[in-house]
Amino acid sequence: MKLPPIRVLDLTGSPEEMGQTHGSAYGEQIRQYTQERVELASSALWTGGSLSQADVLEIAEGMLAAHESFSPPLHAEMMAMAKAAGITPAEAIIVGGFTDFIDTVRAEVGGQVPESVQEDDCTAVIIPDQRADGAGFLAQTWDMHDSATKHVILLRIQPDDAPASLIFTTGGALAQLGMNEHGVCVGINNLTATDGQRGVTWPTVVREALNQQSAAAARDVILNADLAGGHNFHLFDAMGDGYSIEAMPTVRPVETLDQAAIVRTNHTLSPEAGEVEGAKAPEMMASSRLRLQTGIDLVDRAGITADDLMELTREPTAICQVPVEPYHIESSGAAVMRPKTKEFWACWGQPACNDYQLIEFP
Question: Has this prediction a pTM greater than 0.90?
Answer without folding.
Answer: yes
